[in-house]
Amino acid sequence: MRQLLLVTSLFGLFACNQQAENTKGLQNRIDSLEKKLADTYKPGFGEFMSGIQAHHSKLWFAGQNENWKLADFEVHEIMEAIENIQKFQTERKESQMTGMINPALDSINNAIQQRNPVLFKSSYTLLTNTCNNCHHAANFEFNVVKIPDNQPFSNQDFKISK
């Protein structure tokens, strides 16, 4: 009986030690992954906004040239950037405000689907004003968005190719 108790006790100690080693190994792995995650590149808020600014401008010239396929592409690029802000910039208060742009994006998307240049222009103005309203709400009122005067990309033709 004594031997059985001794063997059982040794087995129990070994099992506890094995579990402690497994736990330590798992914790080391978690720590390593957390460090890698902390060092992983994450786009900054300004990078997303710079991309949105370019797509906002391209959207205007696509709509002015009634290039509805390009306009559709550009508005969806803006939508994707907004989604990515909400995904990758959760700690920024500005990220919580981006939802205010959805009605304006829906409006311009509707104008594009209808291929309606008059509705496009008014929806684009609404989009631009909404951007500025968001900037004001986020205390970035110094960053004023406007309808572009000139094409920003000399290497892109916004007319419909035939």
- Number of β-strand runs: 0
Shape: elongated
CA distance, first residue to last residue: 95 Å
* Sheet of most strands: none
Query: What is the mean predicted local confidence, pLDDT?
Result: 89
Instruction: Provide the β-strand percentage band.
Output: under 5%
Class of secondary structure makeup = mainly alpha
Short characterization:
The protein has 162 residues and is an all-alpha fold.
What topology does this entry show?
Elements: H1 2-39, H2 45-64, H3 68-88, H4 102-114, H5 117-137
Please describe what this structure looks like.
It is a single chain. With 162 residues, the chain is mainly alpha-helical. 70% of the residues lie in helices and 0% in strands. The chain has 5 helices and no strands. It has helices at residues 2-39, 45-64, 68-88, 102-114, 117-137. Helix 3 (68-88) runs antiparallel to helix 4 (102-114) and helix 4 (102-114) packs antiparallel against helix 5. The longest helix has 38 residues, at 2-39. The radius of gyration is 27 Å and the shape is elongated.
